[in-house]
């Protein structure tokens, strides 16, 4: 799940054919530009989710490891 969160923005941005157009425009901004700016926000959210998942995994490993040694 962590890898998917981090990999999705790369796929979205590298698949240029999917957003190399001007329509639909949003507030006069061509699709090409607002799609990329939207992915900046989406990437931030996905990176934050990946980090929280990684933290949760690390806490679970520390708890398991601490329980075995005690």
From TrEMBL:
Keyword Transmembrane: yes
UniProt KW Membrane keyword: yes
Transmembrane segments: 30-51
UniProt keyword terms in alphabetical order: Membrane, Transmembrane, Transmembrane helix
InterPro entries according to UniProt: DUF3311
Pfam families registered for this protein in UniProt: DUF3311
UniProt protein name: Integral membrane protein
Organism encoding this protein: Streptomyces albiflavescens
């Amino acid at each position: 799940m962590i890898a998917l969160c981090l990999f999705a923005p790369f796929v979205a941005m590298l698949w240029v054919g999917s957003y190399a157009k001007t329509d639909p425009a949003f507030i006069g901004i061509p699709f090409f530009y607002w799609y990329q700016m939207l992915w900046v926000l989406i990437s931030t959210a996905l990176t934050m989710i990946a980090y929280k998942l990684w933290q949760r995994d690390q806490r679970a490993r520390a708890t398991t490891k601490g329980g075995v040694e005690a």
